[in-house]
Amino acid sequence: MSQIPSIPKGTRDHGPDAMAKREYIFSTIKTVFQRYGYMPLETPAMELLTTLTGKYGDEGDRLLFKVLNSGDFLEGATDEMLAGRDLGGIARVACEKGLRYDLTVPFARFVVQHRDEIAFPFKRYQVQPVWRADRPQKGRYREFYQCDVDVIGSDSLMNEAELVQIMDDVFEKLGIRTRLLINNRKILAGIAEVAGCPGKLTEMTAAIDKLEKIGREKVGEELRERGVSRAAAERIDAFLGVPGDNRTVLYTLGKALQESETGMKGIAELEEVMDLAGATGMEVKVEPTLARGLSYYTGAIFEVKALDAEIGSVTGGGRYDDLTGIFGMPGVSGVGISFGADRIFDVMERLQLFPRESITATRFLFANFGAKETRACMSLVRQLREKGCNAEMYPDAVKIKKQMAYADKKGIPFVVMLGEREMTNGTVVVKTMATGEQREMPADEFMNS
Amino acid sequence: MSQIPSIPKGTRDHGPDAMAKREYIFSTIKTVFQRYGYMPLETPAMELLTTLTGKYGDEGDRLLFKVLNSGDFLEGATDEMLAGRDLGGIARVACEKGLRYDLTVPFARFVVQHRDEIAFPFKRYQVQPVWRADRPQKGRYREFYQCDVDVIGSDSLMNEAELVQIMDDVFEKLGIRTRLLINNRKILAGIAEVAGCPGKLTEMTAAIDKLEKIGREKVGEELRERGVSRAAAERIDAFLGVPGDNRTVLYTLGKALQESETGMKGIAELEEVMDLAGATGMEVKVEPTLARGLSYYTGAIFEVKALDAEIGSVTGGGRYDDLTGIFGMPGVSGVGISFGADRIFDVMERLQLFPRESITATRFLFANFGAKETRACMSLVRQLREKGCNAEMYPDAVKIKKQMAYADKKGIPFVVMLGEREMTNGTVVVKTMATGEQREMPADEFMNS
Questions:
Q1: Strand partners, A438
Q2: Per the CB < 8 Å rule, is A391 touching B35?
């Protein structure tokens, strides 16, 4: 009993300071989503394992947290399964539910389940935790929040353009300088075509996706290992370092992909998205090698990086044409992006971008000098709260030093003192914690300041 | 594959309309909490089963959702356990984690784990889902939100008084007329004393807790069944229907409990809490039989009922003196209340108390008449968004009837039309969906309205 309790590895408590900062990020993001007509959705933490299994590959299936059935969870297990310790078989009969692994599959499940009630195009955002039984390591958790925004049931490139504007708005409001990398799956398909290996699109994108990590030469080797011919690999290599600004890159790509109808369509789509999005505060860079893990996306591909912190991407997404197909509702196109809350938090923490208001919730602490003073204070505190100000009263008449330490630890900027003398004078003493300065003023004046 | 997917029984999706209303409730409650200096806390969905087990009684232990260990979950299981289908033993070795059952035990665990970093008195609120493997039934779910607010590490009755003010503020802001029932565990102890059965406090409170449900006579029978003597049961009965307003009730109680020091202390505490809380908008009623499931509380006991909907209590709580004792940190007193989000939602839905703004997120839908018009619209939409207005543009140039149906289904109050003619004239046509009325006006005027 006297052992200090703890929490499962890879999970976290979010105390008051972290929570205030997280709420600041989430509410900034949600407000932007709402400006664009996106509406909130929440799905249950547990989904049926029939919904989750097989959607994330074998590795993903292994990382699903499974929830034990209530009651006789071995009801469906045969004696052979038990005697043979058939883990897969036993888990299958003992668990019908699992914790959600991402927000995308539950979203697809929701759309298919409620297809008759939904107003399409369906614009939804979802900010909820997900769970993965990953090996915990620095910056990787077993429980973390995803912030997804998707529109489903519309082919219009206006949606892509608005998502660009949304990324621009979010990072401008958060004060993070960013670069948006933008590509189109059709450009990747065009490259594979003109390189002479249209059947190797998946292998090609898997290889060039590593460009930043392993460099151009190693990508060439990887292409060869994945069965791309030497000639094709050389032609692909020419696309890995297209120099110049966006106009030059698009011009170069246009010439190189002339023979590929798909490739030219990709370029045209990309240009239209940038045109519709208009000028943005963030740097936008056309990046023909951007793939973001391939097979999923069918059109636009997005990735946002913070300029002032090396931390990988803080947002990513793209267009997919068959999200709901896995649940038997084919041919519904959608496009969406996901904001990485933990990384955004880390960037803002490192660059000290959290505004003061987002950190300090309480503005005034009223010191406690005893029963009589408390009554006078409580009336003032109540009036402040009615005016929309966050104020608290220290509940016990302990030593003033202890009360000051409390204000200090909680980051409360002002301590108000109303002792017997001040009650007689109709004044209060206000101490500014940052400077230690104390000022006496009429209570009225304080209340109206 | 073509079977329509679904979700685990007892869980729910919260679509856009429900979410908007839920967010309205949560943000109202959180804002009030912050006014009083309470700070947010979030704990992981999964806790170690060593933290959860044994804290909610045998029935509670059965209702815990257990999460299967990753990897070889049968590693610790003996062949005998498996052959004998020892469910309890296997679950113990196969699952080290469970989903949280309430917010109180994780809060206690957090306080003990972080005792050295926390500024006491620690005022926290927590709004998160909890999970219980209860038999699903109308109004009872396996996943539901709790909204808890607690202060721990202070004996001051000022805390109780502020919680009364918090309940008053929350329900006033939500527009729900309520009655607060208030009691004190010490009054219950006093009743048991003067009735001559001080050792039967638990049995007595369990019986009189049912007063409203089963009536006075049946409570008498139940007292007898629980081993309370006939004479004591008769003396207890006199407390079950103390008539009159709060002053009269307190006066009657004061006379009846004169011989019980504990009882008199309870009355004094209750009077001080009401005095410190001051006038409230909600009806406050002293209810000497209010017990709320007994053994947990040591001082004040609160319960709030909605006046205009029969739905049980919408909030409840009280003072407890040894919450963290279960984790080896005894003697820390706290007081807290829990708002029932689902019931509050139901009351507001029934009484139609949700303000229009809380339901409709998007104010303007811009109709789509084609590529050229879209560009003109996007510029207007962007300006509106910059002004803080939620506006969206229909993404595809489909039949106007379909676009109107979308606005209708989504509850968007105004549709803005900007066709070729309006572009030439520099005007827009604004249609009010509720009345069908259409008005043409200069685009400038619209933007500044």
A1: A431
A2: yes
Cα(B161)–Cα(B277) distance, integer angstroms: 4
Q: What tens digit of pLDDT does each residue of A187-207 get?
A: 999 999 999 999 999 889 889
How far is C-alpha B377 from the geometric centre of its chain's CA atoms? 43
B14 forms beta bridges with: A42
Asked if the model's pLDDT at residue A176 lies above 90, the reply is yes
Instruction: Specify the pLDDT at position B2.
Output: 58
C-alpha A434: how far from its chain's center?
A: 34
Chain A interface mutation, best of B17, B65, B416, highest count of A Cβ atoms under 10 Å? B65
Query: What residues of B are in contact with residue A96 (Cβ under 8 Å)?
Result: 8
Contacts of A393 in chain B (CB under 8 A): 158, 162
Spatial distance between the Cα atoms of B236 and B223, rounded to a whole number of angstroms: 9
Residue A280 burial (C-beta neighbours within 10 Å; 0-12, 13-18, 19+): middle
**Interface predicted TM-score (ipTM) of this complex, two decimals:** 0.91
In this predicted structure, what is the pLDDT of residue B281? 86
How far apart CA A270 and CA A161 sit, in angstroms, is 10
Residue B280 or residue A111, greater confidence:
A111
Put simply, the answer to whether A395 touches B131 (Cβ < 8 Å) is: no
What are the CA-CA distances from residue A181 to residues A164, A172, A274 (Å)?
10, 16, 12
CA distance B339 to chain A (A): 20
Distances (CA, A) of A258 to A205, A271, A285, B337: 20, 16, 21, 68
Contact A22/A341 with Cβ under 8 angstroms?
yes
Whether the Cβ atoms of residue B178 and residue B282 lie closer than 8 Å to each other: yes
Answer whether residue A1 shows pLDDT above 50: no
Ordered domains of chain A (ranges, CATH) = 16-44+102-351 (3.30.930.10), 360-448 (3.40.50.800)
Which of A54-58, A63-67, A214-218 is predicted least confidently? A54-58
- A62 contacts in B (CB within 8 Å)? 70
Give B118-136 pLDDT, tens digit per residue. 989 999 999 999 999 998 8
* CB within 8 Å: A8 and B44: yes
Task: Please answer yes or no on whether B16 and A40 come within 8 Å at the CB atom.
Answer: yes
Residue B349 CB neighbours (<10 A): 13
CA distance A112 to A100: 17
Please state the rounded mean pLDDT for residues A32-36. 95
Task: Assess contact for B46 and B98: CB atoms under 8 A.
Answer: yes
Taking CB atoms and an 8 Å cut-off, how many pairs form between chains A and B?
290
* Weakly modelled stretches of chain B, pLDDT under 50: 1
| CA–CA gap between residue B93 and residue B278 (Å, rounded) | 54
- Residue A357 pLDDT > 80: no
In this complex, the residue of A20, A51, A278 whose CB is nearest that of residue B5 is: A51
A48 with B8: Cβ contact below 8 A: yes
Three-state secondary structure call for residue B414: strand
3-state secondary structure of A324: helix
A327-347: pLDDT as tens digits: 989 889 999 999 999 999 999
pLDDT band at A259 (very low <50, low <70, confident <90, very high): very high
Query: How is B319-363 classified by DSSP, letter by letter?
Result: EES-GGGGGT-----EEEEEEEHHHHHHHHHHTT-S-HHHH----
CA A410 distance to own-chain centroid: 28
| Structure tokens, A207 | 């290889």
The amino acid occupying position B121 is P
The whole-angstrom separation of Cα B135 and Cα B10 is: 8
Are the Cβ atoms of B392 and A41 closer than 8 angstroms? Answer: no
Distance CA A380, CA A443 (A): 9
Q: With an 8 Å Cβ cutoff, are A47 and B151 in contact?
A: no
Residue A361 confidence (pLDDT): 79
B394: left (phi over 0), alpha (psi -120 to 50) or beta: beta
**Would you call the peptide bond into B413 cis, given omega within 30 degrees of 0 as the criterion?**
no
